[in-house]
Design brief:
- The complex is a heterodimer of chains A (108) and B (113).
- Chain A has no helices and 11 strands.
- Chain A is an all-beta fold and 108 residues long.
- In chain A, a hairpin with a 5-residue loop joins strand 4 and strand 5.
- Chain A is globular, with a radius of gyration of 13 Å.
- In chain A, 37% of the residues are buried.
- Chain B has one domain: Immunoglobulin-like (Sandwich).
- Helix content of chain B is 0%, strand content 50%.
- Classes of the chains: A mainly beta (108), B mainly beta (113).
- The interface between A and B is medium-sized, with 23 and 23 residues.
Chain lengths: 108, 113
Amino acid sequence: SQQGEEDPQALSIQEGENATMNCSYKTSINNLQWYRQNSGRGLVHLILIRSNEREKHSGRLRVTLDTSKKSSSLLITASRAADTASYFCATDKEKLTFGTGTRLTIIP
Amino acid sequence: EPEVTQTPSHQVTQMGQEVILRCVPISNHLYFYWYRQILGQKVEFLVSFYNNEISEKSEIFDDQFSVERPDGSNFTLKIRSTKLEDSAMYFCASTRPINYGYTFGSGTRLTVV
């Protein structure tokens, strides 16, 4: 399966610091997407990077994709308390396949 | 901004009963999905639906599950005879063709007792 596996499983940082989450996957993809999930809530689409792209920015988010290593990273700069959530990568090849997620806690 | 709407938000049902989870996808989206998330676990694909038929289903989506798009707007997931292990959050999602983000609903929390 083309599962995304996130690393680390949990991350706690001080407000204002940058948070980096990594994702690895196994098979070919059309694109890779990152989602946020607040506790007990739905999944919110953050950013999509196509398989022929290497880096993408959206506000405080920066995503990289290395298809040769089958890996991606999500960087959140200048973190805020409101960024506390679980973050999932998901590979898209006719359907989304989610990774295990990183639980991010921002300490005020 | 357009939303995917799911009802009910929470349903409690007795084991063996039938449940229908309802979703209204975004109107100009063409692909529809159901996912589930057991508490504390990863989000799992159940089924995808395009052009009024199932395009792919997972091993989880056995004969107890079915999907319908009865009237061109609603998209339903039926579980015929619920089991305790069906307790989970069920998410509906929709998207346009390739290379667009998926829009997820807020989910239905199904509790089977």
